Amino acid sequence: MKISNETKIGTLTAIAIALLFLGFNFLKGKTFFGKSHYLFAKYTNVQGLAPSNPVMINGLQVGSVYSITTDKNMKEILVNMNLTKDVNIPVNSIAIIKPSLLGITSVEITLGDAHTYIPKNDTIATKPSSGIFTDVLSKVDPVLYQVTKAVTSIDSIMMSVNHILDPNAKNNISAVLANLNTTTANLIGASASLTTLLNTQTGALAGTLNNLNSFTSNLDKNNGKITSLVDNLDKTATNLSQLDLQKTLTVLNTTIGDLKSTIGKLNTTTGTAGLLLNDTKLYNNLTATANKLNLLLDDLKTNPKRYVNISVFGKKNTSPGLTVPLPDTVNAPYIKQ
What we know:
Blueprint: H1 5-27, E1 37-43, E2 54-57, E3 60-70, E4 77-83, E5 94-98, E6 106-110, E7 125-126, H2 132-140, H3 142-164, H4 167-197, H5 204-221, H6 223-242, H7 245-266, H8 272-278, H9 281-302
Parallel strand pairs: 2-6, 5-7
Antiparallel strand pairs: 1-4, 2-3, 3-4, 5-6
Helix pairs in contact: 2-3
């Protein structure tokens, strides 16, 4: 089977693109055939660090810089390192950017002494680098390096002094001194007031102590009365505790029960008292008797000769008696049956 030139060209083009992609990622530090993991570090100045720059531990390259990202404010730069070697990095290790005279900046990881290690895809602590010339100077002439450090420290101190002696700072110092004078005057006034308060003759505290002393003296004089009062209270409490309260409550409950029974009998028609209260026959009989008595009294008042006749020659009273009592609507009204 004959392969056309177009197929050959297409195949070579695909292989070339694949090799270009693999080479580009290899230069960036990404491997496709071994185990690797990422480690992140945050800096404020990367000093020319670029992707694919080496990551070193004790002079040995253990990976490379994979990517460098930041936000719009450029206040924090995130460096993503791809570690191709499986190494244990203690949690107190530090990643420092190390510039080189050859122009290849690297990340140097200084191992700590902790017994726990940074997990994969986690962040390592960072420290700003002192610069390439400082490193060279410290290696070439340590004495001159120490002098330079001392001069730098003196310069920092002078800058701080100049900042303190700034006109605004002078005004602030003057204000602080004025406030201090005011505070001192207030303390003096407070001390005088405290002295007056604590005066053993005229002070308020002395008066309070005298009143307290008088009160305690009165308590001491009336100690016997207070003791007697407490004894009487104790006796009263004892007598109250000795009362048979349960027996009294039992008697009271019995009395209430008897009273309820009596009231129940009064509400029925079985007894004499119940009949008097509930039966209307007695009321009707009393009403009839009263009517008859009223009739008799009215007839006696109207026709007294029917009942008492003293005349020797008088004739006999033949008038009929009253059949209805006389009307008296105020004192004794007649009730018809």
